[in-house]
């Protein structure tokens, strides 16, 4: 590995694998690290950290929710001579009223942000909102596959951001020192309701897909009937709650500030995913 290698943790995830692909397309040396990827890295096994950090100068940190492992990892990165950190965080994390947090995720993320800022290294923080890819390969994909997305989100909207835009911002921050010391909140160019999103996906795929709004109680009961433990079902409802309240409908200019161009629209995401055969069937 070159001494200028870039470490990408969470390299098989939505943003991580896109970051790896973009860096390699640019001819850069990348260490793609994850529990089951090219290079073994496990947040819960500190014995994997040193080998991942050896010889790298820039790191994309995709943290493990609900933990405070980033701080000791950053301390070890400093000892290894890492110069630049880019942290994956989330929009609204500095607002305690943004969403319920029954899983205790917010405290860990705030500690991660503080650890990066206090590290003495060059740092950038990416705070994306809801990923558009949640419809194609994540949280909502099963509903899209079934032709019926059932969620307790009412007619709330969100500025869904394309993971390709997130990756482009991260790559810029990893490779260009002009992004040091900046926090980029990322969203799409327009807030989209779930009904609008599903209609857009239907048009792009030629399938009949519909959105069915549920109450929180109905949603939790459905998940429990499917075998989800009640506490986990309630935690899932907490995650969706900001959509129903429209908490994530505000727009951010992070993509424009970081890349000098507007973010991709939800329709562009839907069409490109269809062209690549990426919609669940």
The count of DSSP E runs of length 2 or more, i.e. the number of strands, is 11
Mean of residue pLDDT? 94
Task: Sketch the topology as an H/E string, one letter per element.
Answer: EHEEHEHEHEHHEEHEEHEHHHH
Shape: globular
State Rg.
19 Å
Task: Describe the sheet with the most strands.
Answer: 7 strands, parallel
Uncertain ranges: none
**Assigned CATH class of the domain at 5-131 and 160-186 and 249-264:** Alpha Beta
CATH topology of the domain at 5-131 and 160-186 and 249-264: Rossmann fold
What is the end-to-end distance?
40 Å
Pfam family, one: NAD_binding_10
InterPro entries: Ergot_Alk_Oxidoreductase (IPR051604), NAD(P)-bd_dom (IPR016040), NAD(P)-bd_dom_sf (IPR036291)
Domain NAD(P)-binding: 10-176
Protein name: NmrA family protein
Question: What is the fold's blueprint, element by element?
Answer:
Blueprint: E1 5-9, H1 14-25, E2 30-34, E3 39-40, H2 49-53, E4 56-62, H3 70-79, E5 84-88, H4 105-117, E6 122-128, H5 134-137, H6 141-146, E7 148-151, E8 157-158, H7 163-175, E9 182-186, E10 192-193, H8 194-205, E11 210-213, H9 216-225, H10 230-245, H11 254-259, H12 266-275
Parallel strand pairs: 1-2, 1-4, 2-3, 4-5, 5-6, 6-9, 7-11
Antiparallel strand pairs: 8-10
What does this structure look like?
- The structure is a single chain.
- With 281 residues, the protein is of the alpha/beta class.
- It has a domain at 5-131 and 160-186 and 249-264: NAD(P)-binding Rossmann-like Domain (Rossmann fold), CATH 3.40.50.720.
- It has twelve helices and eleven strands.
- The strands form three sheets. The chain has a seven-stranded parallel beta sheet, with helices on both faces. A two-stranded parallel sheet has the order 7-11. A two-stranded antiparallel ribbon has the order 8-10.
- Strand 5 (84-88), helix 4 (105-117) and strand 6 (122-128) form a beta-alpha-beta unit.
- The protein is globular.
- The model has no long low-confidence stretch (mean pLDDT 94).
- Residues 10-176 form the NAD(P)-binding domain.
- InterPro entries: Ergot_Alk_Oxidoreductase, NAD(P)-bd_dom, NAD(P)-bd_dom_sf.
- It comes from Streptomyces leeuwenhoekii.
- This is NmrA family protein.
């Amino acid at each position: 590995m070159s001494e200028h290698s870039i470490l990408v943790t969470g390299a098989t995830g939505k943003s991580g694998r896109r970051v790896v692909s973009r860096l390699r397309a640019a001819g850069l040396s990348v260490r793609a690290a994850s529990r089951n990827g090219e290079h073994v890295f496990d947040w819960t096994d500190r014995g994997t950290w040193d080998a991942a950090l050896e010889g790298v100068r820039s790191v994309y940190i995709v943290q493990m929710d609900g933990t405070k492992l980033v701080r000791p990892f950053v301390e070890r990165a400093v000892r290894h001579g890492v110069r630049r950190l880019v942290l994956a965080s989330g929009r609204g994390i500095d607002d305690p009223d943004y969403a319920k947090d029954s899983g205790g995720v917010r405290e860990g993320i705030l500690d991660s942000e503080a650890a990066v800022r206090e590290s003495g290294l060059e740092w950038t923080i990416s705070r994306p909102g809801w990923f558009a890819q949640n419809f194609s390969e994540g949280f909502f994909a099963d509903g899209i596959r079934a032709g019926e997305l059932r969620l307790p989100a009412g007619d709330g909207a969100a500025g869904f951001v394309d993971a390709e835009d997130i990756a482009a911002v991260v790559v810029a921050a990893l490779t260009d020192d002009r992004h040091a010391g900046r926090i980029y909140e990322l969203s799409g160019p327009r807030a989209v309701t779930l009904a609008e999103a599903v209609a857009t996906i239907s048009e792009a795929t030629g399938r009949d897909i519909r959105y069915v709004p549920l109450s929180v109680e109905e949603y939790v009961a459905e998940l429990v009937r499917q075998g989800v433990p009640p506490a986990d079902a309630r935690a899932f409802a907490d995650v969706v709650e900001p959509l129903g309240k429209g908490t994530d409908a505000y727009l951010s200019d992070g993509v424009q500030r970081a890349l000098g161009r507007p973010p991709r629209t939800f329709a562009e995401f839907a069409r490109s995913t269809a062209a690549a055969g990426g919609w669940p069937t």
